[in-house]
Write a structure and sequence with these properties.
about 150 residues; mainly beta; Jelly Rolls; 4-stranded antiparallel β-sheet; 8 strands; disordered N terminus
Length: about 150
């Protein structure tokens, strides 16, 4: 059976900006031993399912983040993947630079529209900046999706 992707059934959003939460005081932790740049990711498909087909209409994505609690070496970030057919996915694209400090921030908007595919999915990752101990962080965040007019 051949599956033929189509834009039928996908329609552009009716508003200029849509804000969708992806985490509310979500506890993330490393399994320990990874150290270095090895991220451990959790898919955000449930949280951001409604945004999966917005890629062709996106102008930018701005993350609003809040790091509540963290251990000394915990770092976290959100990445996204794009696909034309929903079966073969791109390498990960960092939505913003990793976060390693407490507090809230509005991240720099991601505006490379070449990476906004017909299908998009998101993941949140955590890593230990250094060492092999397990690290943890509690985070909240939303994505502000801005659409082309």
């Amino acid at each position: 059976m051949i599956v033929r992707p189509t834009l039928r059934g996908f329609s552009p959003p009716s508003q200029k900006t849509l804000v969708i939460p992806f985490a509310t005081c979500l506890a993330l932790s490393t399994s320990g031993g990874s150290g270095g740049t090895s991220y451990e990711f959790i898919e955000l498909d449930k949280e951001l399912a409604g945004t999966r087909h917005f890629g062709p209409w996106l102008e930018s994505i701005t993350a609003h983040t809040f790091t509540h609690i963290r251990t000394a070496n915990a770092r976290w970030k959100v990445v996204f993947y794009w696909s034309y057919d929903g079966l073969t996915w791109s390498a990960s694209n960092d939505l913003f630079a990793e976060i390693g400090t407490l507090g809230q921030d509005i991240q720099t908007p991601y505006t490379n529209t070449d990476n906004f595919g017909l299908h998009m999915r998101y993941a949140i990752g955590v890593r230990a900046f250094t060492g092999t101990a397990s690290e943890s962080v509690n985070v909240s965040g939303s994505l502000a999706l801005t659409f082309q007019t």
